[in-house]
Write a structure and sequence with these properties.
The chain has eight helices and eight strands. The chain has 238 residues and is α+β, with helices and mostly antiparallel strands. The structure holds biliverdine IX alpha. The site of biliverdine IX alpha has 23 residues, from β4, β5, β6 and β7.
Length: 238
């Protein structure tokens, strides 16, 4: 269901950036679970390049039961650019939840004007994908922008509306990256570093997927996956 999103991201990344592989612990890179009624496969990829210190994406394929594509792009610490966050989930044909955002690291007006306002014209074309749903796990004002796409939708809308929206969001993200001036002063770099680490800690603590990982792959694997791959700058809290 979301394979075209993965393929589009890969095509974009490989054509635009000089990627090198960022090795993943083989235990975490690929797993198959036989626990559910359908076998569930989870596979992840991770890269880096001068502009991005970490590019990761994960695909969960449990056939009809679940199809999930999740990705985060972490810019290098010289760039205060938002993180690109993608979380597309289909549980059967009926329950499809999609989230796509430029996840802001800071919330001051200059920052929002520079990195978030440019989304407005694209976001305005896709009203049906921005449903103002309530967030149960996350705080919408923490690492989400006012122009996130967040919708409960159907397979047809995924193909006809979400895919073009995704392409436009990515296009804009590359453009903002190109225009961004890498910081050189250590105070800025430290501030960005801290903000990205805080994002990992916050996200690891609230990840709504933890239960899903535990049920498919066991709690030990789930813990490792969250803290040593997805959000590796997080530390487990008791
Ligand atoms: C919700 N994301 C969810 C849910 C799951 C995942 C299972 C709950 C769906 C439900 O309500 O039934 C799945 N999250 C994952 C998976 C991974 C993960 C598979 O981290 C890792 C492989 N989530 C992100 C990113 C964004 C994001 C990058 O990981 C940003 C675009 C958003 N996911 C997001 C939001 C919700 C969600 C906003 C709704 C949560 C809420 O209601 O608070």
């Amino acid at each position: 269901m979301f394979q075209p999103f993965l393929q589009h991201l890969e095509k974009e990344l490989f054509s635009r950036f000089d990627l090198s592989s960022r090795p993943i612990d083989p235990e975490l890179e690929f797993q198959i679970s036989q626990r559910g009624k359908n076998p569930a496969m989870i596979e992840s990829w991770c890269y880096q390049c001068p502009q991005f210190r970490k590019i990761r994406y994960t695909y969960i394929n449990a056939g009809e039961t679940a199809q999930i594509f999740n990705s985060v792009l972490y810019p290098s610490y010289e760039y205060d650019l938002p993180l690109l966050g993608v979380d597309l989930l289909a549980f059967g044909k009926k329950k499809i939840l999609v989230v796509l955002d430029f996840q802001p690291l800071f919330r001051d007006e200059d920052y929002l004007e520079k990195y978030i306002e440019p989304i407005a014209p694209i976001r305005a074309k896709y009203n049906e994908l921005a449903q103002d749903l309530e967030m149960k796990f996350y705080d919408a004002n923490q690492y989400f922008s006012p122009y996130l796409l967040f919708a409960k939708t159907d397979a047809e809308t995924v193909v006809n509306r979400l895919f073009p929206a995704y392409q436009e969001y990515l296009q804009l993200y590359w453009q903002l990256l190109e225009q961004a001036e890498p910081k050189t002063d250590s105070a800025s770099i430290e501030r960005i570093t801290k903000a990205q680490k805080d994002y990992d800690q916050y996200s690891a603590e609230r990840d709504p997927a933890s239960g899903l990982f535990r049920s498919y792959f066991g709690s030990e694997w789930a813990e490792e996956f969250v803290h040593n791959f997805l959000f590796e700058d997080s530390v487990p809290v008791a």
